[in-house]
Structure formats: structure tokens, C-alpha cells
């Protein structure tokens, strides 16, 4: 019996809907399998589908629907800021709300550092390298460095940088420790910020597959922020742009950590919301306490 593409997608959509999953996953998987864009797939939607392709699609749809395996780990890639990044279970899957932080960093740098065409930038907890690589490609004159505690994650990030042609330096280590003896004009980070209680409540696609090292932020989710903010004075130049991604309920807590560490040294400080209206970024311009 010949199965056509539209019939395969109808099956996938129905199966995913039955298990309360995103019905579009079937399209994403089939496009990846056939090396087609969505438009190309839909234009030839009545084309027959090879038996081995249908078997593959059924296996992957069931893996996602029944076990929660993220589609990005199945395809080995995820979109970010108009580019495609390699992802593996060693790195977090880049998300749209993180794209917003990249845009805000570019905007704040233009506003507060117009005289600096080549700032030194550090991305702490780089994972797939999506933030550091995107900044390097959007601002080729910037000096970009990226840090991660996971050597496996750094391997993925380096592959992404090489493939996309981004000039980024990579360092292995915990938070700001690799910067000791160095300095930064801009520091960005999407650190682990999920509290112990929230870790137990995460959806299966995150909890069971994405690296806990990049998710768990301690009892209250603030451990990494405390460490980063405490160590900031040691790596700051005269001024520093700090951009931290946060959990939706952490805006005031992280803002308070910044205010407490830098009394009378804050030029600008903002808790900014994502497109969904949730607190998502704490961004600040700080003066060095020794300047």
C-alpha cells in the first residue's frame, strides 16, 4: 500500500494530538528527513512516501509523543536568530526568548557604549554557543569569549562556531573563574536558574532530556546569580554592561542582588519582559567600584 505525504502527516498530527503534543512536530520531522523546506513539502504533499521514511517518521513521532524526546535532539539542530545551530543532549535547546536578550544586548551596547566599536564580551554558560556566536556574527569587531563548565558542551559550541564562521574564544571552567586576570566590557549569561522544587515540576521534554547542569540553580534558583554578581568587580573595566536571563519569578530578586552589590554604582538597571509578558532579563550598566 502506497502512503502519500499528506496521509503520513495526518497520522502524525492525530497521534500527537491524542498524546497532547504539538501537532506540527510531524511536519518538522518529515522536512528534516526529506531535506525539504516546509513550502517544498506542502507543494508536493501528494507525493508518495518511501516505506523506510514512513517507518522513521512513525518511530520519531512515537518517541516524542510517548517519551517526550525533544524534536531538536532528534534532528540535531535548532534555529536561533535566523541561523541553524547544532544541538545535542549535552546542551540546552536555544529558545526564542533568548533571542530577545541578544537583541537587547545589541541595543544597550549601541546606547551606552557608542564609542566602543570593539568591546570585550564574555558569554557565561554558553552551551551550544548560540549567544556568543550570534553576537560575533552580528558584531564582527567585538572580541567574544565563551565559558562553560561542560567540556562536551564546549565541543558542540566550537563546532557551531567553525561551521558558521564566527570568531569566538572558548574557555572551560565555572562561571567567572576563567576570566580571572582578565576583564570585560559586556557580560551576558543564561545561567542555571531552576529551583530545586521547580526541577521536579518541569515538563518531561526538559526534565528528562536537557542537561541538569545547565538547568538547576540550587534551592531557590539564584546560586549562579549570586556567584556571578559577587565576582563581577574583579573583571570589570571602567563600566560594564550586564545582561542576565532569568526565570519569570526572579526579576526582583536578581535586581536586588545587583543593587546590593553595586550601591551608587548603577547607571541603568532594568527588569525586561519577553514577548509573552514575563520577566525574562535583568540588564544593567555598572561602574567599577574601584574607578
Please tell me about this protein's structure.
By secondary structure, the chain is of the alpha/beta class. It folds into 2 domains: 3-67; 91-287, Rossmann fold. Helix content is 42%, strand content 21%. The protein contains 12 helices and 11 strands. The strands form 3 sheets. A 7-stranded mixed sheet has the order 7-6-5-8-9-11-10, sandwiched between helices. A two-stranded antiparallel sheet has the order 1-2. Strand 10 and strand 11 form a beta hairpin.
Structural Rg: 21 Å
Element-by-element helix/strand order: EHHHEHHEEHEHEHEEHHHEHEE
CATH architecture of the largest domain: 3-Layer(aba) Sandwich
Could you tell me the number of beta strands?
11
Given as residue ranges, the uncertain stretches (5+ residues, pLDDT < 50) are none
**CATH topology label of the largest domain:** Rossmann fold
- How many helix segments? 12
In percent, how much strand structure appears in the residues? 15-25%
